[in-house]
Amino acid sequence: MKRMTVALAVGALLVGGAATASATPAAPKIPDTIKVPDGNRPLATYYGEGVQIYGCTNGAWALIQPAAVLSKHGHPVAIHSKGPVWTSTVDGSTVGAAAAASSPRKDAIPELLLKANLNTGDGVFGKVTYIQRLNTRGGVAPAGACTAGAQTAVRYSADYAFWVAK
Q: What pLDDT digit, counting tens, does each position of 48-59 carry?
């Protein structure tokens, strides 16, 4: 079932659509290193499920891009892609961001605090100031050497919390 969900998520991203994702997990504990600065308030938190796509460069795996669908109560609300960028499938608004801080997780990609550097549209992502990638599961690059030009997709999931200025 999970393989089918990931396949649907990646396929939907490639054709510009959306797919459903599994139920939203419990609220995560937020490490101090990735807390959002004062002067911001939470807007929404969505569950994201998809893949981290890695390519082989100089014998080592390097991140190319994420490809994920974000959902709320099982209904797709956004896609997450290279940039990183999040685009609402409901209203077309977009937020792009850059990592500001990270917190490691065992056997998973790190949790992140990202600061918005691009907002388009008047919808849900139009005024986002910060994004937190929380409660990450999976997504870690394969261990060991690789062959130049090879690519692989590693399943992951995370909770994405979006914040706006007060």
A: 999 999 999 999
Query: Where do the H-state alpha helices sit in the chain?
Result: 2-15
CA 80/CA 57 separation, integer angstroms: 23
Q: At residue 125, what are phi and psi to the nearest 5 degrees? A: -95, 0
Helical (H) or strand (E) element with 16: none
Q: What is the pLDDT of residue 82?
A: 98
Which residues in 58-78 are b (16+ Cβ under 10 Å) and which e?
A: eeebeeebbbbbbbeeeebbb
**Reduced to 3 states, what is the DSSP secondary structure of residue 29?**
coil
Strand partners, 44: 162
What is the pTM assigned to this prediction? Answer: 0.84
Give the pairing of strands 60-72 and 128-138. unpaired
156 — phi, psi (to 5°)? -155, 165
Does residue 80 have a pLDDT over 50? Answer: yes
What is the pLDDT, as a whole number, of residue 29? 80
Compute the distance between CA of residue 142 and CA of residue 77 in angstroms, rounded to an integer. 30
